Amino acid sequence: MLANLLSQLSDGQLVLRYQKERRPEFFDVLYRRYSKKVFLYCYKIMGHREDALDVSSEVFVQAFEKLDTLREAITFRAWLFRIACHKSINACIRKQRTATYSIDNIFYVSASTTATDWQDYEEKEAQTKNMMAALAALPAETQTLLKAKYYDGESIEALMERYHLSKSAVKMRLARAREQANIAYGRA
After folding, report:
1. CB 106 within 8 A of CB 60
2. Displacement of CA 84 from its chain's centroid (Å)
3. Helix, strand or coil for residue 18?
4. At residue 66, what are phi and psi to the nearest 5 degrees?
């Protein structure tokens, strides 16, 4: 009966009641309302079910711990998804930094490779190192955006949905990110 009554309250009302009374049932309603949506949002960013489950759990732990610091109760949804965005992006970056590669995936040079092939290989390897150094010098959000578009092959529409931006805003961010990458590449 109480759960049914609580489910009729708005997000803002639930937040305010939680902040005043500290009763977990108010947060439970918010969790039931948003847990699936937050998971799907994290999954869209991360692309891996188990990782998205872990991160979405972390999102709600942080939200629960910090809910009393939310000043505008009506902004709960935006605040929650901002936490989800930051945690998802940070998890992707951490995962990339700790990724290991199999020796089978490393560029294989056969015994019959000629001198010109070696020179081409060395040039490409140097360019790749410079490009990786340039990317590493960029802010994490810029790295994530560029990798999503050019490494993962995400469409503009997918990026619009992922970042909750208009088409022109996504294109502008991509243009700025490419410009930052070109500047950093020139320095590398």
Report:
1. no
2. 8
3. helix
4. -110, 5
Q: Please give the average per-residue pLDDT across 172-177, as a whole number.
A: 85
Where does the pLDDT of residue 78 fall: very low under 50, low under 70, confident under 90, or very high at 90 and above? very high
Please state, in angstroms and as integers, the Cα–Cα distance from residue 73 to each residue in 2, 33, 67, 89, following that order: 21, 15, 9, 25
- Could you give the CA distance from residue 174 to residue 46 in angstroms, rounded to a whole number? 19
Q: With contact defined as beta carbons under 8 Å apart, do 138 and 177 qualify?
A: yes
Lowest average pLDDT, out of 36-40, 80-84, 169-173, goes to: 169-173
**Short-list 81, 83, 93, CA closest to 135:** 93
- Beta-strand runs (E) in 3-133: none
**Range 50-58, long-range pairs (CB < 8 A, 24+ positions):** 51/91, 51/95, 52/88, 54/91, 55/84, 55/87, 55/88, 55/91, 56/84, 58/87
* Dihedral Cα 26, 163, 94, 63, nearest 10 deg: -10
pLDDT band at 121 (very low <50, low <70, confident <90, very high): low
Give me 115's structure tokens.
């001198």
